[in-house]
What does this fold into?
Amino acid sequence: MAITRVGFVGLGIMGRPMARSLIRAGFGLTVYSRSRGPVDEIAAAGARAAGSAAEVARASEVTITMLPDSPDVEAVALGPDGVLEGARRGSYYVDMSTIAPAVARKVAAAGRERGVGCLDAPVSGSDIAAQQGSLSIMVGGEPADFEAVRPVLDAMGKNVVYAGPSGMGETVKLCNQVAGNGTLLAVAEALLLGAKAGADLEVVIQALAGGAARSWMLENLAPRIVRRDLAPGFMVRLAQKDLRHVQELAAETGTPLPGTALVQALYRAVEAHGGGDRGIQAIATALERLAGAEIKA
Amino acid sequence: MAITRVGFVGLGIMGRPMARSLIRAGFGLTVYSRSRGPVDEIAAAGARAAGSAAEVARASEVTITMLPDSPDVEAVALGPDGVLEGARRGSYYVDMSTIAPAVARKVAAAGRERGVGCLDAPVSGSDIAAQQGSLSIMVGGEPADFEAVRPVLDAMGKNVVYAGPSGMGETVKLCNQVAGNGTLLAVAEALLLGAKAGADLEVVIQALAGGAARSWMLENLAPRIVRRDLAPGFMVRLAQKDLRHVQELAAETGTPLPGTALVQALYRAVEAHGGGDRGIQAIATALERLAGAEIKA
It folds into this structure.
């Protein structure tokens, strides 16, 4: 029986375009978010507005949450008026936030007790991919639940990967954050060297994009760095949150991550100068401060 | 007047496939290399073998060198029986090695005195792109010389970029090395975290390849890391040579590069265990040693 009724809780920078993708794909969407503005916006696009996460879940075969951090997910999933309070037996709950794998496992266990199939399905690709419906989605949970919910995920992503049991979607996402943020630092250092050595930074970007230094970060964030566009696709403070989860997992598993520690230190420098709400490309401003020089085209 | 006669000196891992691309493109090729084996191999593919770099240059409208480091280029370009000894006035000399920008400028000045148009045109893309004729090539020198030699470069590369005056090709290449090697460290740390946290590393690679952590290093070297294939596309000791040039340029220009310094330290750890001739993906073995764990699929 095909899923037709989907719920969405958490209409932030990522949540809004993801909700729009679901409407576009023809799902009947019920939404809830703390702020009224985003709810009105998505309701105007064709969704029904609900008064709580529980109400969303009551109306939906699959309920999705897209929230900032572990405590938000715990509150919205497990708390009063939360998803599991409203969700029917046999329905599904998919958390697409980036949170601690241990919290994802806790939520999944609570869902199992209530007969709700839970998946942790965090995403990668930034706001750009969310708008295009081309997110990378890494999914932890029961394989049968994954297969059941897959058409809903396919409406938002084009690289939907089953990662393993509950929590493993989050684990793979944390690996993604290590690779992505580390790559961004590498790109920013390259631009800094180019700037200090008098290179044309547009040329640097073009030359590097065709070779072994090619990356999403180079193609998408290097142009913003050299244009000094620090508007957030993904915010520094959220990257820091993800990297805290990375280091918690690293501590649990005994994993030294020296490059990631450096990335965190530089993001911390950005935050120290009030840049926590800037896009992660602002890591370049920490290097600029170290170097006493500007990176610009 | 179209260039037809090209010379090539230095038939290593990169030089051989580049020479083959020139033969395939229909250029009449004369080659020289210190070792006899590679010369015989490329001669069998249709090139004429010469007895010295000077002899190559005498036979060629454009002479190319592809050598390990600055001293090699100084010796082969400027020394006895070298390129500039044999090169005719009005011919071109293109050094495609990765060397110090200052040495590239010195060679270009010596060439100018003899009426030889000199370009520094280092490449990116590793042995894979060399074999496919799809290298990224960043070129420093006079714009008119670049335009004259461009058909020869186009036979080896598909992203041929004019970077600025003499030395600027090398400068941009050094930026490329900062971005590329730093990206590789980020990928290796992600795989280490995944391995320690029990993730399926094939899934990690697949999930990351579709999102914001996507990179050439992830697509090309992460699979080799998890297969424990450390054969060189690009050797650790040559990466270390490039990063020495990076840090020289960084010192000249007052550029702090903390991530790059970490990459160098980890490559040094690989070298300390006898891995200098391994591929740069062996940086993962330094992390494995730190963690006391293996990264494998």
